[in-house]
Amino acid sequence: MTDVVLDGVHKVYTGGVTAVRNIRLRINDGELFVLLGPSGCGKSTILRMIAGLEEITEGDLWMNGGRANDLPPRDRNVAMVFQEGALYPHRTVKGNMMFPLEVSGDDRAEANARVMELARALGINTMVDRLPRTLSGGQRQRAAIGRALIREPSLFLLDEPLSSLDAGLRTELRVEISALVRSTGTTTVYVTHDQVEAMTMADRMAVLRDGVLEDVGTPEQIYEDPATVFVAAFLSSPPINLLQGTLWTVEDEGLLIDFGPQRMMVPWDDPRASSLISHQGQHVTVGIRPDTLTPIAPGTPAQPGTVLSGQVRALEFHGHEWLAYAEAGITTVDPTEVGRSAAPATYEPERPGLRDRLKDLLGRPSQDEPPPEEHVPGHHRRADLIFRIAPGSRPNRGDHVALAVDLDRVLFFGADGRRVTPVHRHQTAPPRMHRPGHASQETRAHDTGAFGTPGPTGGYGTTGGFGGAGGH
Ligand SMILES: Nc1ncnc2c1ncn2[C@@H]1O[C@H](COP(=O)(O)OP(=O)(O)OP(=O)(O)O)[C@@H](O)[C@H]1O
């Protein structure tokens, strides 16, 4: 068993491609840790550096408290499974699974018993005498996982092992892989670009973009309390509404978010008001998940500044729910563009007399234009407000709808794409099975911080909490 720390790890490939930028991350002993991100974000590179298959350009890799940058792969006790798990074509499933034990000279009868036990756990015990070419893709992956796990590695690395399988098999296997590695207590690092796979499997996960660590935490933490616009959008299906507004303070009332034709109000007693106030006069991105908007009948009393409206343009049936798309005339933010460069939030809008501007905002007609967009980093467009329809109250296309916003669940991001309010990363992974003698959850309860959230030092002679991205 092992824990892994990446301390300021940086990777530049020959030819100059920077694949990984200053990653600081702790993967705890016995944890199922997922690396999630879009294609090309550096997930596989990180995995390969942990395996010793790729050189680390800068920074340190620690395994079980020892610096491992120069440790040969064979001395790391790591097993790895790829998208197409490699099997020897002329060996049966059993032959493939036996191979690592034969190499290490294990007792044959004992090895045979272990292979059969693992094959049963993987659901391939009835096909151990078959050759790989006679197996389905899912069965081949099970065999590859069996071959990797048979010699009880300290660290199990999986690189998109399910991505070539169909949706049904993926669901089935992700449950089985999670159960298997949890029952063995093997520290596991799992790479995927599939948010559902990440959310359903991970004890904790890291979200990457362009080689930069955007966020680290449990799936619940990252979903409910994302550190950046990119993370909020990457972990959202149906997509989160990301509305671009400008923030103004209104004495006696609160913080007004001006979306141009519509606005929202965050009252002064809202716990986020004290963080938001520093964005006075600046662009903010307001993240509203579709289930945070509730259609209400016209005229229903609501707290001022908590209702948005639009005209229904499309309806979509998703089996378990209906979604509606309403044209609201609000500029939305493209999360793939925001916060991409290291550009700080430098936008300073022109300030006509503030008092005049507020008077204007609070009483003006809805067709007014928002502040000029060319000042804002990122890409912006007008898009629909997406909301979930309550059962039995389906609007028709063309209807005007009023949508009550659950203000407590709204997320606020600055122009640089980072959350305006601090993100919380105090808890570690949920309790899980461990073999006797392994570190308990409590002893592993030193969690990472992301973007300046509190995180104690992880030891190994480094400063600051692991898990936050540096220099982003
Ligand atoms: N051997 C290599 N030489 C040069 N550049 C490379 C090499 N391997 C990867 N890269 C580049 O490094 C970046 C990160 O690649 P990596 O494979 O780690 O990403 P990934 O997130 O795993 O992507 P995917 O999900 O598509 O596998 C990409 O820009 C890629 O083109």
TrEMBL record:
Domain ABC transporter residues, every copy = 4-235
Instruction: Please give one Gene Ontology molecular function term for this protein.
Output: ATP binding
Keyword tags: ATP-binding, Nucleotide-binding, Transport
Q: Which organism is it from?
A: Actinomadura meridiana
What ranges does the record give for the region Disordered, renumbered to this chain? Answer: 360-380, 421-472
The Basic residues compositionally biased stretches are: 421-437
What SUPFAM superfamilies does this protein map onto? Answer: MOP-like, P-loop containing nucleoside triphosphate hydrolases
Q: Taxonomically, which superkingdom?
A: Bacteria
Gene3D superfamilies per record: 2.40.50.100, P-loop containing nucleotide triphosphate hydrolases
* Name this polypeptide is given: ABC transporter ATP-binding protein
Biased composition annotated in UniProt, kind: Gly residues = 455-472
